[in-house]
Design brief:
The protein has 355 residues and is α/β, with parallel strands linked by helices. The protein has helices spanning 15-20, 45-57, 82-92, 109-116, 128-142, 147-157, 190-196, 220-226, 237-246, 250-256, 277-280, 290-298, 316-320, 336-351; strands at 38-42, 63-67, 73-75, 78-80, 163-166, 173-179, 185-189, 202-209, 229-232, 261-264, 267-268, 271-272, 305-309, 325-329. Strands 5-2-1-9-10-13-14 form a seven-stranded parallel sheet, with helices on both faces. It has a three-stranded antiparallel sheet with strand order 7-6-8. The protein binds guanosine-5'-diphosphate and calcium ion.
Length: 355
Amino acid sequence: MARIYGRTPSAANNPILAGIIPPGRYRPVPGKIGGVKVVALAGGVGAGKFLRGLVRIVPPEDVTVIVNTGDDVEVHGLHVSPDLDSVTYWLAGVADRDRGWGRAGETFRATDELRRMEAEWSWFGLGDLDLATHLLRTGLMSGGATLSGATAEIVRRFGVAARILPMTNDQVTTRIEAVDETGTAIDLHFQQYWVERRARDQVKAIRFQGVERAAPAPGVLEAIAAADAVLLCPSNPVVSVDPILATPGIAQAVAGRRDRSVGVSPIVAGAPLRGMADKLLPVVGAEVSAAGVASYYARRGLLGGWVIDRADAGQTARVRALGIRTVVTDTVMTDDEAAGRLARTTLAVALGVDT
Ligand code: GDP
Ligand code: CA
């Protein structure tokens, strides 16, 4: 086994890699791995951080990101796609690293005014810069563009070279069936559960409304089938990755690439770094642990490899027992360099070479 990547340009010329990817496709790119087609399944922030690392390792043109749209919502008549925007903002380098979501240097004057006017859904804070994206998207779509078409335009205008695809152009909505503090059954849009009510309700079930009739967006299945590596970003398995996998044909396509399909655990030391995965995993019968998420994916035949944090090293044997190549490393992406190291390790596991 040999190293697949190093700091020197010549390391990108590694003959081992040339043997792994189809003949003729390998191309040396100084400091990066050229010619490897990478697909990443992505939610929002965890994915955005990871993808910034990934495009340090492979040329961004070789990366296709398939993004969850179950969180999408119409607010003030605008089509808002939180995960598509998070991924775009992170890759464009305009994301707010501290807050996690939205854009750096953001202001909220329009939202403040909407709240003063008691506009419906004004609890859903949309930044002023962020609003420009939603206006552009909504305008393009009312002019006849599909969500894919509008996304490609937005991505281009942000100068992002990676291909970013919504999982579907059809409407799929993540709904949370829960019980509130008075014991009353409620049925909420994911954003009402998470942003408005701050995950305080007891969740009974999660459903992706409309998914049975949804078709994968153009290019999604083709990208997975042609990928040398399929990476499951460290995103919420239940409300970020599952809507993608529930879109007809996608889980099957990923299972078809199982040997090259590798995920990064979004659970570190028994808890999510942010978000509510700890509340939702038990609802779908998964344990809140690195091994629990691995087995949740593996029971659908989706996982060839799994990358877990050093804090969870004790679970390595459990994951390996599922027949999954398991690697322990630092997975907390404090900066782009850390994300780059994590992406390199993850890619190496997918390609079946040493890091
Ligand atoms: P969204 O922005 O709410 O859509 O969030 P995602 O679904 O992309 O991500 C939420 C998950 O990402 C949580 O389970 C977090 O633990 C995980 N996450 C966020 N940052 C990191 C990180 O630096 N490392 C790892 N391993 N997971 C992370
Ligand atoms: Ca999300």
